[in-house]
């Protein structure tokens, strides 16, 4: 069933000038897509009203659990008026994706990630890389015990209650297979992606260039420059620490970039 996006995120032009958005985005993501400290709600899925209620609640100590203390420290200096008018959030609630409403997708994402980017329990395939057909085969296989390694028992419990028809039409997965680059196995690409995004789509620490827009030559030049201190500004120190242990040859042939 096709579901329609009912709202859009406000643009930065309408964000409050009084609130330090850059600091917020360091934890919540450049597009508000992250669970801050692995714990918070995803801000991009919240309405303006929900964001306002949360911020005022954090300030007054009436909202939040594990994030309560951290958030109080971050917002206590702002006036109620500023917190009511941050401009953060959706005008209307968004229904994301075209998922089968009979499938508890929220529970799936608790292990597989908000964008299906995680290896569940550190073991599963990355769902974001799988096609709809591959997902259907896996789900049916888990249900009937014909698919899976160490995830077999866990996944059988999670899918056994669904009909074959629902599992064949979960809506999860890619329409077509994405071609992935052949990365240099000597480079810790996983750590790179923790800041730059699963598809290199993020500005790391809200500051770097978008790696997805860079050629392999541009990436190589940047990495070598970070190693020798000849490239970069605010990212210079961080990136030097991250790449100094790699050989020039590895950095020239990372496989990252277009």
Indicate the CATH class of the largest domain.
Answer: Mainly Alpha
What's the number of extended β-strand segments? 0
Structural class: mainly alpha
**What is the share of helical residues?**
25-40%
| C-alpha geometry | flat
Q: In CATH terms, what is the fold-level topology of the largest domain?
A: Cytochrome Bc1 Complex, Chain D, domain 2
State the major sheet.
none
Instruction: Bin the strand percentage.
Output: under 5%
How do the helices and strands follow one another from N- to C-terminus? HHHHHHHHHHHH
Q: What is the residue-averaged pLDDT?
A: 82
Q: How many angstroms does the end-to-end distance come to?
A: 35 Å
Spans where pLDDT lies below 50 across 5 or more residues: 1-14
Total of domains? 3
Task: Please identify, by name, the CATH architecture of the largest domain.
Answer: Orthogonal Bundle
């Amino acid at each position: 069933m096709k579901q329609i996006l009912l709202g859009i995120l406000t643009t930065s032009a309408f964000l409050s000038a009084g609130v330090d958005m850059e600091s917020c985005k360091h934890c919540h993501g450049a597009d508000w897509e992250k669970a801050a400290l692995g714990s918070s709600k995803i801000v991009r899925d919240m309405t303006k009203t929900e964001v306002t209620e949360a911020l005022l609640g954090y300030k007054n100590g009436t909202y939040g659990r594990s994030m309560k203390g951290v958030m109080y420290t971050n917002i206590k200096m702002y006036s109620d008026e500023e917190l009511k008018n941050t401009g953060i959030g959706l005008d209307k609630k968004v229904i994301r994706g075209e998922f089968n409403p009979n499938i508890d997708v929220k529970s799936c994402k608790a292990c597989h990630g908000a964008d299906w980017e995680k290896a569940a329990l550190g073991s599963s395939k990355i769902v974001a890389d799988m096609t709809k057909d591959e997902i259907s085969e896996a789900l049916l296989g888990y249900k009937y015990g014909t698919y899976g390694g160490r995830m077999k028992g866990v996944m059988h419990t999670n899918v056994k209650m669904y009909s074959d028809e629902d599992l064949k039409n979960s809506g999860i997965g890619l329409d077509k297979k994405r071609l992935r680059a052949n990365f240099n196995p000597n480079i810790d690409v996983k750590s790179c992606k923790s800041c730059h995004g699963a598809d290199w789509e993020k500005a790391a620490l809200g500051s770097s260039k978008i790696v997805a827009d860079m050629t392999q030559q541009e990436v190589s030049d940047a990495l070598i420059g970070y190693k020798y201190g000849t490239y970069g500004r605010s990212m210079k120190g961080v990136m030097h620490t991250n790449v100094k242990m790699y050989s020039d040859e590895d950095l020239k042939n990372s496989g990252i970039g277009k």
